[in-house]
Amino acid sequence: MADLFHDFLPGSGNNRTAFPLAVVQAGIGELWVPGSKRPAIVQLLTSTLEQRRSYFTKLIMATVRQAMIYRCGE
């Protein structure tokens, strides 16, 4: 699943659309680990399912919404 989401958004460097912003919008900003994007996504998905399962759908929805904005602006 991390491979699928990898190309959705940048990991950082964008003040409008990025994984850290989507994670904050989903209400689980504390689960985003800065660094290399793919390991950060793997950790994020794992931590969300293990620690904050009720936020998983919110995370997916926030990521998809951010990705739609990001892709339209490219």
Descriptive notes:
- The chain has 74 residues and is mainly α.
- It has one domain (2-73).
- The protein is built from four helices and no strands.
- Helix 2 crosses helix 4 (56-73).
- It starts with a helix and ends with a helix.
Secondary structure elements and pairings:
Elements: H1 2-6, H2 19-25, H3 37-51, H4 56-73
Helix pairs in contact: 2-4
Keywords:
74 residues; 4 helices; globular
Instruction: Work out the strand percent.
Output: under 5%
Shape: globular
Number of strands: 0
The largest pleated sheet is described as: none
Low-confidence stretches: none
Mean pLDDT figure: 91
Roughly what percent helix?
Answer: 55-70%
Overall number of structural domains:
1
Whole-angstrom Rg? 11 Å
Order of helices and strands, N to C?
A: HHHH
Tally of helical segments: 4
- What class do helices, strands and sheet pairing give? mainly alpha
The separation of the N and C termini measures: 23 Å
Write a brief caption for the model:
The protein has one domain (2-73). It starts with a helix and ends with a helix.
